[in-house]
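thought: fold this chain, then report.
action: predict
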Amino acid sequence: MSHQLFHPKCRGRLQGFDSEGLLDEQGSVQVSEVEPREVSPTELLDIRERHWSRRLSVVSLAAEYPVDEAFRNQTLGVLGDLYRKRSGAEGVRLLRRWPSVHVLSTIGVAVDHYEQGTFWPKLGSSLGITPDQTFTRAWGEAFLANLKSLGLPTFEDSGDAGTKYVGKILMHSGMPTTCLDDYFELIGSRRSKVAGLGSGEFVSWAATRAEQGQLHNLDMPVIRFLRYGGEFAADVTDRVFDLLDAVGAGGDG
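observation:
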């Protein structure tokens, strides 16, 4: 089966090529203003891997490179199709053939669909796979191995990384959508108590409290994001502060 490496929004768009003149910002091949290039499943993953791995080489958390949901879902589906056709050691090798593809596709499921205790069923549903113990071990071990090959932190020395696999996946996911309410409520509460609070001050305070185990009634992904997110957490929080300031001034955000 061949695949089109484009998104409807990209049709006819010629800006944003990389140095090869072939890829747009999401790794979409643009060979004309009318027709996208047809490629095989492995070619698609090879192209995305080349592009996405370059982006991940300059970040500390995978979530710092946001991938368009349509591209991410397409990539995950192709990877799942290939994985279902292989078993044992061959399947394990497949998951490690495209490290950035595997990592970014995996955290995308966590960002969009995570609810406590449901990550593996959500991932399995996305892939068309029943997530038994063999699958979760193979996928989780591949995720950790791929982080290492990409030079991204595995948080192995952290005693607060959650479960062996899901905790690390969530830490690289930044902030799952379902956890945003807790994050916004914490910011709002702190801003109401400290006049003139800056985003940097907030992140420093929150990181210290998280390290000391003094952030209560929050989802663990929020606590880990603030504790380990570093500059990424500071940047995201700065944008949230700007949004709240705009809304407070009568803007629509």
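thought: worth noting. Residues 4-34 have pLDDT under 50 and may be disordered.
final: tokens above.
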